[in-house]
Amino acid sequence: MDDGLNGLNGLNIYLFNTVLDSIKQSLCIVDNNCVVKYWNTAAETFYSINKEEITGKDVRLFFPDALLPKVIKEQHPFEDVYNSPKKDYYIVISAAPLYDSNNNLIGGISLERDITDYMKITKLLEKTTDNLTLLKQEIHSINHNKYSFSKIIGNNEKFKKTVELCKNISNSNINILILGDSGTGKEVIARSVHTQSNRKGPFIPFNCSAIPYSLFESELFGYEGGAFTGADKKGKIGKIEAANKGTVFLDEIGDMPLDMQPKFLRVLEDGIINRLGGYSDIKLDIRIIGATNKNLKELVSEGKFRQDLYYRLSSVVVELPSLKERKDDIELFVYHFLKSFCMQYGVNIPEIPGNIMNILVNYRWDGNIRELKNVIERIVIMLKSYKTGKIILEFLPEYIYDEYAVFEPEITDDIGISDLNTAVTNAEKKAILMALKRSKGNITKATKILNIPRTSLYYKLRKYNISMENKVISD
Ligand SMILES: Nc1ncnc2c1ncn2[C@@H]1O[C@H](COP(=O)(O)OP(=O)(O)OP(=O)(O)O)[C@@H](O)[C@H]1O
């Protein structure tokens, strides 16, 4: 007769132990009083509890929340129950009641799969996925908010006040007129206002001076199918309509043709447009930002710009200072653009020599920030191609360095009477010095003036011990 777990003896026990110890999962067998009858080697290793220690004892003494007592009580199997029996360890338990041949409950068995490594990898994966999501969001926000007030550079007080004003009115629907010379950042400001406004529609720029008169109306207001010869049969929406729920940026607004201005005034007043060749009004939700480097008031007095349009446009007028009015920001811009172009071109960020920074700070910058940005890009490109590792004066565009280059060698007329060889030598030295003076120390130009190869000039400089130390432009 089978007496359950207590019926295991001799060979049976030996075989039983060998089989169960070869299982890689932790295994525990208890009798119907929850007393441990078997504890395999894998369980010993995982829980650091010896067989001798636990066998014959109530499993609840070691594991108060063990699953086996529940299995025995409910006589119900459990499969793949997730548990973390100790910190940073994870298992999946399956447990079932055990019955003898007469179907009497004799105990329970549990098998535990160690999934710690799997859980660690899963957690790592989750973390990596989270990081990836964050990075994606970051990239999205960088790409979509390429223009935002936080990216606008400038510590100049006048400029900071202007930016503050723009920030404050971003959220309202008020029209803005931005005044400033070319390259002072009018479009950057307009785009930042749009980003900050949270208007759902797009930012549509339109340059009033870049569109031929014949296309102006159809480009800005759109047209109905067949409105004019060559027009698309389906018609086309104009820039203003395309910016519905967003912002239209009208650059060079002073150049808007006079006969277009009443039509545009209607957009400003009622948000209504009529496509070219169309009869129905199209109501839009539009914010207008205009910009110009011209004196609009003067254009009004000359009759080139409608006064009512001017007043309507200039609810808020923002004036951007030119770069020479914000000299205190030039160094900041230089370092900002240097860093960003070095990253773009894969060049180590170099120091800027004091004399070069001096030139950059004192230059006129008629083209404002755009011009400065282009000069810094040029410097970085030269740095990359010439692999000098440092910025030299010749990297500056010629029109800038010519203005600042100085080379004042001492040229004496007192050659004196001497033998012919000495006289020829002295004359040659003088010619070289004068050529260098005229070329402001530029070797290439001096060789052209002297009509000799570059190598010859270098040879003669050494021969006559002519130092180029006073020259601002290095060669
Ligand atoms: N405050 C600023 N911070 C960083 N970059 C700027 C700033 N202002 C202008 N820039 C850069 O200078 C360049 C010229 O700016 P933007 O096109 O806005 O000038 P603009 O006044 O609209 O010129 P234009 O009248 O010729 O259209 C752009 O490349 C822009 O990125």
From TrEMBL:
PROSITE patterns hit by this protein:
PAS (PS50112), SIGMA54_INTERACT_1 (PS00675), SIGMA54_INTERACT_2 (PS00676), SIGMA54_INTERACT_4 (PS50045)
* Sigma-54 factor interaction domain ranges (all copies): 152-381
Isomerase found in the keyword field: no
Coiled-coil annotated spans: none
Domain PAS, first and last residues per copy:
12-65
Q: Does the keyword Transcription apply?
A: yes
Q: Which Pfam families match?
A: AAA_lid_14, HTH_8, PAS_9, Sigma54_activat
Q: Which UniProt keywords apply?
A: ATP-binding, Nucleotide-binding, Transcription, Transcription regulation
Source domain of life is Bacteria
Q: Cross-referenced SUPFAM superfamilies, in alphabetical order?
A: Homeodomain-like, P-loop containing nucleoside triphosphate hydrolases, PYP-like sensor domain (PAS domain)
Query: InterPro entries from the entry?
Result: AAA+_ATPase (IPR003593), AAA_lid_NorR (IPR058031), Homeodomain-like_sf (IPR009057), HTH_Fis (IPR002197), P-loop_NTPase (IPR027417), PAS (IPR000014), PAS-like_dom_sf (IPR035965), Sigma_54_int (IPR002078)
Q: What is this protein called?
A: Transcriptional regulator with PAS, ATPase and Fis domain
Q: Which organism is it from?
A: Sedimentibacter acidaminivorans
